[in-house]
Amino acid sequence: MFETLSDRLTSVFSSLRSKGRLSDADIDATCREIRIALLEADVALPVVRDFVSHVKERARGSEVSQALNPAQQVVKIVNDELVAILGGETRRLRFAKNPPTVIMLAGLQGAGKTTLAGKLARWLREQGHAPLLVAADLQRPNAVQQLQVVGERAGVAVHAPEPGNGTGDPVAVARGSIDHARRLQHDIVIIDTAGRLGIDQELMKQAADIRDAVRPDEVLFVVDAMIGQDAVTTAQAFMEGVGFDGVVLTKLDGDARGGAALSVRHITGRPIMFASTGEKLEDFDAFHPDRMASRILDMGDILTLIEQAQRTFDEQEAAKMAGKLVSGDNFTLDDFLEQMLMVRKMGPIKNLLGMMPGMGQMRDQLNQVDERDLDRVAAIIRSMTPAERAEPKMINGSRRARIARGSGVTVTEVANLVVRFFEAQKMMRQMAGGMGIPGMPGGRN
Ligand code: GDP
């Protein structure tokens, strides 16, 4: 996501790097480039205008820090403005004082509402809540069944009208679900409503009727980010027809431009609260404007990476690994393997590396990362004797040949792995010596 904009902006900044100070003409030229970058990313025109004029004003103003060079100053300003346009602070869900908290989903058909209902339910369940999914989409054939499948996968209960009653009244189902939730002690109710392929009055009326019947704590407007500028038009229509408190962007994985994400907040005045990035239930997270800006500018998203690690590993495991990392000296090939397998548990390597600073420019290489490489490395290490793993220096030519035979790889691959291990070990020692993590961005405040 955001590849187009990210590439463009990165090249704008790199052309500033050699400048000692920025003249007004430099600033104008840079702002023109930023404007083109935003337009290419399909950002709505009023948003582009505001964005560029803020950047220009600030770049010309005297507020900029003397500690930063001109390129860094512009990056900082653009970063701040991106954060602002994406909504500033992370907006979290508001929970009702008297449960259940009622969350209603609205949006066009195909926006990803039903999938999102499952993702949100799973996410909330993991945080210790007991959500109830409610099937109030009685229009689309199979919608109820689809929600039931999603609910099962998410491990949450689904409230739906009796089978054979498919023409039932969605307003009544939604209303009834609140009592049902209370009886069964669900603290959150997520209502999936019907969508249409296009905006129409009947759709709006039904959504508004459900809203009036259940008085939701949060109405979330679900929109497919891939439809670009249309997302903004649809958002405006729903804003007028139903009203909503927050936006959920879906299919961000397929949206290289990011125009919807960058426009919707500014145009509707409502924050983006969640983002969906794939078809699987776990491809979902709260939306953090600052982290998203950081990713767009290829400054990495270390916070998300850390959170993902915390979610994946229990504390003991993490503490044990951290201990190894700090000492460096005791770091063996067994630890190397263990560390690699731990990292793999966090998700596809490509996604993880994509969150590291500076990796955006290496996108092509990232796409070639072969997950099977890890299996080969694991096979090589497992073909070593415990003594070899603890003391890899002893791995001479004949040992290399034996290990290669045992793991079905070439002798060169074994040799390369050992070299990589020594490099990792050296890095650990350096880190332990307080030299900082190589590759972390410096120079930016
Ligand atoms: P609804 O009509 O709004 O309920 O939409 P659905 O939940 O049925 O989703 C429509 C299609 O979009 C399905 O094929 C989903 O698998 C797919 N989908 C939903 N969310 C995402 C996402 O974040 N990324 C991708 N790539 N596909 C998604």
From TrEMBL:
Composition bias, kind Gly residues: at what positions? 435-444
GO BP annotations, alphabetical order: SRP-dependent cotranslational protein targeting to membrane
EC number assigned by the record: 3.6.5.4
Example GO molecular function term?
Answer: GTP binding
The top EC class, named as a word, is hydrolase
Q: Which reaction does it catalyse?
A: GTP + H2O = GDP + phosphate + H(+)
Listed A to Z, the keywords are: Cytoplasm, GTP-binding, Hydrolase, Nucleotide-binding, Ribonucleoprotein, RNA-binding, Signal recognition particle
Which branch of life, at top level?
Bacteria
Subunit: Part of the signal recognition particle protein translocation system, which is composed of SRP and FtsY.
Comment on protein domains:
Composed of three domains: the N-terminal N domain, which is responsible for interactions with the ribosome, the central G domain, which binds GTP, and the C-terminal M domain, which binds the RNA and the signal sequence of the RNC.
- What family, per the record? Belongs to the GTP-binding SRP family. SRP54 subfamily.
**What name has this protein been given in UniProt?**
Signal recognition particle protein
Provenance organism:
Sphaerisporangium rubeum
